[in-house]
Amino acid sequence: MSSSRRFMDRARKVLPGGVNSPVRAFQAVADEAIIVREAHGATLTDIDGRHYTDYLMSWGALLHGHDHPAIRAAVTAALGRGTSYGLTCEAEVELAELVVGRVPSVEMVRFVTSGTEATMSAIRLARAATGRDLIIKFDGAYHGHADSFLVSAGSGVATFGLPNSPGVPADLAKLTLTCPFNDADAVRDTLKRHAGKVAAIIVEPFLGNVGFVAPASGFLTSLRSLATESGALLIFDEVITGFRVHAGGAQALLEVSPDLTTLGKVIGGGFPVGAYGGRRDLMEQVAPSGSVYQAGTLAGNPVAMAAGLAALQLAGAPAFYDTLAGRTRNLVEGLRAAAETLGVPFTAGYAGALWGFYFHPGPVPDFTAAKECDSRLFGRFHAAARQRGVLLAPSAFEAAFVSAAHTDDIIADTVERLADALARATRD
Ligand code: HOZ
C-alpha cells in the first residue's frame, strides 16, 4: 500500500472525507488522493516520491509556480518582523496601491482572507448600497461557499452533484436568482420580473469553476448595460481571473467596467488573501468610513501582504502576460491536435494563464452544455495523465492553470505526455 493511501486512511479518521476542502478528495475521478510532500517551480512531489508537472497550481493561486525565490525572500523578511499585528502595516497600503493602479474599476479596496469572504462582503455592500435584497448569479458559477452562493454552483458543488447545500435557509436561497451564462435575454427577463428588487448581478467573467467557459462577444457588455438600466450593481468575481488573464484582470482584457470586483488566489502569492474593491462612493460605505460592517483579525496579515506584493511585482513587466498566454495557447493547441488525430470530441479554451477543456464536440457556452461532456473519459484521461506525471484538477468541472514556471520545454513535454494519456484513455 502506498504511503499516500495509508496517510489518507489516517486523515479520514480526523478530517471529514480526509480533507479540508472537498475537491481534494479525488472522489470524482475515483483515484487515490495526493498527499503532498513538497513543490518547487512547476513540479509537485507526493509523499511516495512521485513527481507531477502541476497544472492545479493551488487552484490558480500560484502565478509564478511553487516556492518562487523572490516570494520566499519577501515572506522570510516579513516573518522576521512578526507574523500578525491586527493593526495596519505598510505592506497593506503598498498592495492596495498596486491593486488600485492595475485593476481599472477599483478605486478603493478592502483586504479579507479568502475569496469566499470577498464575495460575501461585496454582496452585503451591494445590498446596502441599493437597499435591495435579490442577487442574480449564473448557473455553474462558483463564488465561494457563503450561503447566498450555493445555488446552482460550480466547483465541488457541481463535482459532487449537490445542487443546493443543506444548511442554507430556504428563505435566503430564494434571494438568489439564477440565469444561464451567456444568456443576456434571460437576465433581462429576470430583471423585468423583479423590477426594482435586484441589488447585484455577480458574474465570473470567464467561468472557471465548471471547467473553462468564455463569455460570448457582447455578453458582459450587455450585463453592464442591464445592471445600469435596472439600478443593480455589476460585480465581477475575479478571484480566478484577477492578475491571471491580464495585469488588470478580465475587466481590462475585455474592457468592461464593473461596479465592484472580488479578488483572491494570485493576490496572496500563495497565502490566504482575498479582496473586494470598486467605485470609491461604494467602498466608502464600508465601516469605518460608512456603516456596512465587515472585519477580520487576520485581514491584511503582514506575511500574506508581503507575498502578494512580491507576486504582483513579479508580474509587472508588460510582456509577462503575453508570454504566459503564448505558452497556454501552445498547450491548448497541442492537446486539441492530439484529440483531433484520435477523433475524440474535444473543445478547449484559454485566457492568459487560465485554460480548460471538455470531452464534448462544442460549443460549450454554459453549465448545461458543460454537464454533457464525457466525464467517464475525463476520469480515464485524468488517471492516465497522472500516471505520466501530469497533474490536472481531479474533476471535469474545474479549470487548469499555467504558471511562469511552466517553460516552453515543460509545455512541449506536457503536450507529449497528454497526447499519450489521451491515446491510452480512449483505448480503455
Ligand atoms: N474551484 C475551487 C475554487 N475556485 C477549488 C478550490 C477548493 O474548493 O478547494
Notes on the structure:
By secondary structure, this protein is an alpha/beta fold. It folds into two domains: 3-67 and 318-427, Aspartate Aminotransferase, domain 1 (Alpha-Beta Complex), CATH 3.90.1150.10; 69-314, Type I PLP-dependent aspartate aminotransferase-like (Major domain) (Aspartate Aminotransferase, domain 2). The chain is built from 16 helices and 14 strands. A hairpin with a 4-residue loop joins β2 and β3 (51-54). The chain is globular, with a radius of gyration of 21 Å.
Features:
428 residues, Aspartate Aminotransferase, domain 1, 16 helices, 39% helix, binds (4S)-4,5-diaminopentanoic acid, single chain, alpha/beta, Aspartate Aminotransferase, domain 2, seven-stranded mixed β-sheet, four-stranded mixed β-sheet, 14% strand
Write the layout of secondary structure elements.
Elements: H1 3-14, E1 36-40, E2 43-46, E3 51-54, H2 57-60, H3 69-79, H4 90-102, E4 108-112, H5 115-130, E5 134-138, H6 156-159, H7 170-173, E6 176-179, H8 184-193, E7 198-203, H9 219-230, E8 233-237, H10 249-254, E9 260-263, E10 274-278, H11 280-283, H12 302-314, H13 320-342, E11 347-351, E12 354-358, H14 367-370, H15 375-387, E13 390-391, E14 400-401, H16 408-427
Parallel strand pairs: 3-13, 5-6, 5-7, 7-8, 8-9
Antiparallel strand pairs: 1-2, 2-3, 4-10, 9-10, 11-12, 12-14
Helix pairs in contact: 3-12, 4-12, 8-9, 13-16, 15-16
Bound molecules: (4S)-4,5-diaminopentanoic acid.
Residues 21, 23, 59, 142, 155-156, 209, 240, 398 line the site of (4S)-4,5-diaminopentanoic acid (HOZ).
